[in-house]
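User: Please predict the structure of the protein below. I'd like the answer in structure-token form so I can feed it into my own downstream comparison script.

Assistant: Understood. Taking the following sequence of 64 residues as input:
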Amino acid sequence: MCLVCIAFASWVLKTANPQVGDAWKAVLLANVSALSAIRYLRKYVKIEAATSEKKPRDTTPSES
């Protein structure tokens, strides 16, 4: 999903005509998409870190 938002933001900026007075809308849309992707990634990383900390680690030496 994040990659889709970033790709969409990039596409919007590439296809926007800077000569048109409504170009600010395209820039705003691209920025919102990019910020949403960044927020999602940060939340996902925090969740992954929390779940990896909760998993019990077996530190006992194995018997051979």
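That's the full token string. The radius of gyration is 21 Å.
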